[in-house]
Each structure stands twice: as structure tokens, then as C-alpha cells.
Amino acid sequence: MMAILFLVGQKLEEPSIVNDLLDIKKTPARPIYNMASELPLVLYDCQYDNLKWYYGRDDNMLNTISKLYKHIYEQWYIHATKSLLFSTLLNDLGSISLKKNVHPGQELQNFTTNIEQTLKELVSSEIGMSSGNLSNIITSGGGKELRVRNYVKISNRETCDSVESKNEKYKGKRIKLE
């Protein structure tokens, strides 16, 4: 669902595609497309009426929650450290001058760019693409991008097997095993 919403948000698909995909008469089998990144998706809070929630094998809720807190803190610390490291590397690499790093006589064959730019400016601009001119950059969340020459609409893509087809294949395999 999120992958489709990303495509709609990028104006690569019409909002009506959501209803079309949910209508099994219109779309009996799922079209093939890349899933959205799981990174920005977090189920944070759920509430249920008349349900006693168990936090682990330990009946001591405070013990279990403190273990959870310690685990999350450790993960945060690791990722905060990595984030700082990557931020520093990106900043240092991004500030590299193209002019200072292109040797005399060396051509930038695959780039049509201003030699006065920094590496960050080159990479950030779509002008820095190879001569193949990949025109669509599809964002799938979590910092992931897919570059394609020609975007194919979801409704025009190949589809996975339908539920009925999958059931028939399974039934056939089961009969062979018996």
C-alpha cells in the first residue's frame, strides 16, 4: 500500500489506482512492483478494549519494560553514532571540488556539468546523470530510490498469479504428494 501511495505522491500514478487495486474484479492479481521501504513505517500505539497485555514471560512488568528500554537505547546509540559518521563523511565528500580533482586533459564524458561545482552539487542535480538520461527517479521511502528510463504504469504491468491460480498450483502439488 505504501509503495502505491509513494507513486501517487510523486504523480506517477493517479489516486484512483488505490481503489482499482482494492477492487478484485478490476485487478484480480497483484501487479508486480517494488515494495516500499520498511524504515519509515512504525506501528507505535495500539489500544484494545478488555484485553490484558502481557509484556513477556516475566510477570514483572517493570523488569520487562526496563529491558526493552535498554535495548532501544542501545539501538539508538548505535544508529546515532553511525548517523554522525555518515553525516561527517557526506559533508567531507560533498565539499570536494570537481575542478581540483579533474586532471588536465581528462574529460567528464558521462557528465554534462559545471566544473566549478562540488561533488554534492553534482550528485544532487539531475544534470549529473549519465548520457543515458534516466528521467524518472522513484522514491520508495527510507532514502531508497529507483532510477528508470521509462516508468510503466501499475495498470500496464505484469501481475503475480491470482489467488485462484495459486490455490490450483498448491492443490496440484498436494495431490502429487498424496
UniProtKB/TrEMBL annotation:
Catalytic activity of the protein: uridine(38/39/40) in tRNA = pseudouridine(38/39/40) in tRNA
Residues in Pseudouridine synthase I TruA alpha/beta domain copies: 1-49
Pfam families membership: PseudoU_synth_1
Highest taxon of source: Eukaryota
GO terms assigned for molecular function: RNA binding; tRNA pseudouridine(38-40) synthase activity
GO biological process: mRNA pseudouridine synthesis; tRNA pseudouridine synthesis
Gene Ontology CC, one term: nucleus
InterPro entries: PsdUridine_synth_cat_dom_sf (IPR020103), PsdUridine_synth_TruA (IPR001406), PsdUridine_synth_TruA_a/b_dom (IPR020097), PsdUridine_synth_TruA_C (IPR020095)
Enzyme Commission number: 5.4.99.12
Keyword line: Isomerase, tRNA processing
Family statement drawn from the similarity comment of this UniProt entry: Belongs to the tRNA pseudouridine synthase TruA family.
Name recorded for this polypeptide: tRNA pseudouridine synthase
